[in-house]
Amino acid sequence: MVSRKRQRVSRTTSLEDSKSEPFEKLPDDLVICILSKLCSTSSSPSDFVNALLVCKRFNRLGLNQLVLSKACSSLFAIRAKNWSESAHRFLKLCVNAGSVEAFYFLGMIRFYCLKNRGSGASLMAKAAIKSHAPALYSLAVIQFNGSGGAKSDKDLRAGVALCARAAYLGHIAALRELGHCLKDGYGVKQNVTEGRRLLIQANGRELASVLPSVTLSSVPTKTTNKKLLGQFGSGCCALLSDFGCNVPAPEPEPSNRFLTEWFALRGGEPGPSLRLCSNQGCGRPETRPFEFRRCSVCGTVNYCSRSCQALDWKVGHKLRCSPQVAADPWLNVGPIGAHPHGHMVGAEAGHHNLQAES
Ligand SMILES: [Zn+2]
Ligand SMILES: [Zn+2]
């Protein structure tokens, strides 16, 4: 009896041995290589965390600097409700390993959510130095608004320079922002033609990013417009109404989604007399009262940037703004007005551009 039990125990042990054996035989550098690949291609944080839970060895090697330095942006798609000291610690490990995505993600959280402006901005700058387009664009927004400082800290020229670098790397919001700056002569010498060209380019890229099944070699022709319009019907938001087709708004980046969720959990109020950017997928809060530009027509919405304003106008604010404005396009063309606090405002900017770009 005793010997049969012993036999059974030894058979189970040998089965477990044979299960873990393939991993045991792999040399450390090969496991690190496989985990690095996983770290750079994970579609969610759980993909990578599950691999770390396989065994102690995976856990140890998975936290190796070589692995963490390869972290992709999806690895940091942490939900704000799950933010914890251990999530912060994991991000710090990735920062120490030199992950550019971690520089940006933790930079945004520190700057906007934890109000640790200096550390947040310097992390974003580290990502920007490595040509991280979203970091370059976020720093541009900070410069345009003088975020974290006073109104006198606004540096429009620096904002335009950062935006140009991000736009060159193909960042859509940066392209749109730069287009508006050139068109209005904001922080840069006015060049309406070049501004419009960039806005058309931004729209083309927007279309390509939200319609992965449609290949666009260039800006769509009238025939393409009709086809797309027929394909997508009228049920979606009119993001690209400039081109006569209706498609959903683009997916927000993980850091923007985090900011949106973070402030939603706090009642949508970033602080006393502070407001959030009204563009749904942005989530950026004001860092001082009246920092953001507001719609000069209805006065009920505020934007961190021209890019957010133009995008929100297209995806729905034109229908929610003043009813007579939305109904009569001729009322909607005019110069950008001035905010009582001296900020540039104007929902008409969005619509005006629609007309210019179509
Ligand atoms: Zn915004
Ligand atoms: Zn409005």
UniProtKB/TrEMBL annotation:
> Which InterPro entries would you find in this protein's record?
At2g35280_TPR_dom, At5g50450/At1g67340-like, F-box-like_dom_sf, F-box_dom, TPR-like_helical_dom_sf, Znf_MYND
Cleavable signal peptide: none
- The residues that cross the membrane are none
Query: Which Pfam families would you find in this protein's record?
Result: F-box-like, TPR_27, zf-MYND
Q: Which PROSITE patterns match?
A: ZF_MYND_2
Q: Which domain of life is it from?
A: Eukaryota
What keywords does the record list, in alphabetical order?
Metal-binding, Zinc, Zinc-finger
GO MF annotation: an example: zinc ion binding
- Protein name, entry field: MYND-type domain-containing protein
Q: Name its species.
A: Carnegiea gigantea
